[in-house]
Design a protein that fits this description.
It is a single chain. With 153 residues, the protein is mostly helical. The protein has one domain. α2 packs antiparallel against α4 and α4 packs antiparallel against α5. It is globular. The chain starts with a helix and ends in a 7-residue tail after the last helix.
Length: 153
């Protein structure tokens, strides 16, 4: 065993008891879902702005899409946080995030400059969110498999 792998093993052993606790897992899920909780709450508090957002992206009928997005994001987030079909909710939010990213952050259509720069960064940040939700789904399904198919917290 090399010196660097020994250090890495010791570091991992030191942080594992803290990082793998249920509280940290919940905080991680909450952080990942934060935008999918804040967004719908903002839409509820300013439904006219939510309608404007749907109209801006050509999603008609705007009211139906706004309500669907609100319900979907809140429900999927609640499922992830509660551990109810977490894998399914995570896959749903991954797909939703990818679709919304390709609708809202079409950086390749923008002229070079600050707006394109910001849209490009946001596009790739959203790809990261989708990837994180895929990891949540993978981890949840893997843990279920190890537990004989039983749901886990």
């Amino acid at each position: 065993m090399t010196h660097s792998s020994t250090i890495a093993s010791r570091l991992a052993a030191g942080v594992q008891p803290f990082v793998t606790t249920p509280a940290i897992r919940f905080i991680a899920h909450l952080g990942l879902c934060a935008a999918y909780i804040q967004g719908p709450l903002t839409k509820i508090l300013d439904f006219d702005a939510a309608l404007g957002e749907m109209n801006h992206f050509g999603l008609q009928p705007a009211a139906l899409f706004a309500v669907a997005v609100i319900v979907f994001e809140l429900l999927a987030s609640a499922m992830i946080l509660a551990g109810i079909l977490r894998w399914l909710a995570a896959l749903g939010l991954a797909a939703f995030t990818l679709a919304a990213t390709f609708i809202a952050l079409r950086f390749w259509e923008l002229a070079p400059g600050q707006e394109r720069f910001m849209a490009t960064n946001a596009f790739f940040e959203h790809l990261g969110l989708a990837g994180a939700f895929l990891l949540v789904a993978w981890y949840d399904l893997d843990r279920r498999n190890e537990a004989g198919g039983k749901p886990l917290p």
